[in-house]
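Researcher: Good morning. I'm working through a list of sequences from a screen, and I'd like to move beyond sequence-only analysis. For each chain I'm collecting a predicted structure so we can compare shapes side by side. This is the next one on the list. No need for commentary yet; just the structure.
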Amino acid sequence: MKFKQLFIVFAFLWLVTNSYAQKIGFIQRAQHRISADLTPLKKAWELALTNQNRVAELVHFEIESGLDQTLNKTYYVLTALSKDRKIKVYAPLKNVGGNLSIAGKDMPLSTVIFIETEQTSKVKIDNNAWQCERVDQETCSPAVLIE
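Model: Good morning. Structure tokens for this chain:
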């Protein structure tokens, strides 16, 4: 049974990350918006979390942006927060002409990660790598959800 679940997750993620037609959202007048039905992605991420012994219902999806300080380049990520607010998932997005899609293996950063949010943490991208900072200045490490 577990093999079947893993196969479904990886098959779906291969389809998502290898399909440039999978538009997640767009940028218009400095605003970013989700324009896709994220139900299949939500189910795949929840299943991937379950396979890592973390049960979570992902309920709040949004596109966030930031500045990669090292590269001086704006980045975009799709985030999902669990209903109990204990897990947050991050997926890098590719920006092509204002259309945002899940970053594929052709991008420097394509790993989907998650953090457990009991400690207030901030995740950002710096030099095409995930960085995690806690408010209390302690270090934190995001866990890989999907490579």
